[in-house]
Specification:
CATH superfamily of the largest domain: Leucine Dehydrogenase, chain A, domain 1
Strand order of the largest sheet: 2-1-3-5-6-4
Structural class: alpha/beta
CATH architecture of the largest domain: 3-Layer(aba) Sandwich
GO molecular function: NADP binding; shikimate 3-dehydrogenase (NADP+) activity
Number of strands: 12
CATH topology of the largest domain: Rossmann fold
Catalytic activity: shikimate + NADP(+) = 3-dehydroshikimate + NADPH + H(+)
CATH class of the largest domain: Alpha Beta
Radius of gyration: 19 Å
Shape: globular
Distance between the termini: 28 Å
InterPro entries: Aminoacid_DH-like_N_sf (IPR046346), NAD(P)-bd_dom_sf (IPR036291), SDH_C (IPR041121), Shikimate_DH (IPR011342), Shikimate_DH-bd_N (IPR013708), Shikimate_DH_fam (IPR022893)
Family: Belongs to the shikimate dehydrogenase family.
Largest sheet: 6 strands, mixed
Number of helices: 10
EC number: 1.1.1.25
Number of domains: 2
Helix content: 25-40%
Amino acid sequence: MAISGTTVLYGIIGNPVTHSLSPAMHNAALAALGIDAVYLPFPASDIAAAVTGIRGLGIQGLSVTIPHKESVMALLDTVDPVAVKIGAVNTIVNTEKVLTGLNTDWLGATRALEEEIDLSGAHAVILGAGGSARAIGFGLLEKGASITLCSRTESRGRRLADELHCPWISLEESDRLRGDVLINATSVGMVPQIENTPVSEEVTSQFQVVMDIVYAPMKTRLLREAEAGGCKIINGLEMLLYQGVAQFEIWTGKDAPVSVMRKALVEVLARKK
C-alpha cells in the first residue's frame, strides 16, 4: 500500500514498544480490507507529551501499553465506564481532537472464552492479582460470571478480591479450587521458564475450560496438562488477538478480518523463535 497525505495514522504508545506484536496484526487487517491507513509503534516515555502529539498530529486511534495504561487516563477527555472500573485504558479513539479512553483487554479475554463456554452463570477462577487479572475479572462480571481470585500475595489478592466482591484463596490452597473456567493471569510458564506451572494437573482437572494469558510459548505446561486431562484450552494469543479485534472494529467501524489477524500473529511469533 502506498502511504500518502490521506493515509490515516494508528499506532501503539508505550515504553518499550519494539517488541509489540500489534503492528503486524493491525497492518495485516488494514491491508486485507484495503483501508488507507497504517499502524506504527511510537516509543513514549513522556505520556503527557505523547497525548499532546496525538491531538496535534491527528492520530485517529492508539493502543496503550506499559507503563502508561493508568497514567494516561487523567489526560483524556472521557473514559469509558468499564475502563474506569478496571482503572486502566489500553485504547484511545480520537474524534475531532476529543480523546476517549477504553479498555479492550477484558473484551479480548471474554470473547476468547465465549468461543468455548457461555460465561453467563459460569464460575471462573482467576490466578493472579495484577493488571491482567483485574481487567479479566471486571470483564467476567460484565458477562454475568462469578469469580474466585487465587494469588500468592495475600494483601494484594484480598484488595482486588474486595473490589471484585469475590472470595480470595491463597495459591498454597489451590487444591481447593473448583469451577467451570480456570484462567492463569500471571506470567508463570512464560519463556524461558516454560516448565513452570501455577497449579497442578489435579487442579486443572476440576475445570471445563483452561485459559492462559501467556503466549510465548503458545501452549504452556499448564495448557498441555489441561488438554491431556480433557479440558478445552485457550492460549494467550487468543486474548491478544481479540483485544486487537475489538480495537480495530472501534477505530474503523468495520468487521475485523479475524483469521488474517491471527495468521499475522502466529507468523511474527514464529519468526521470533
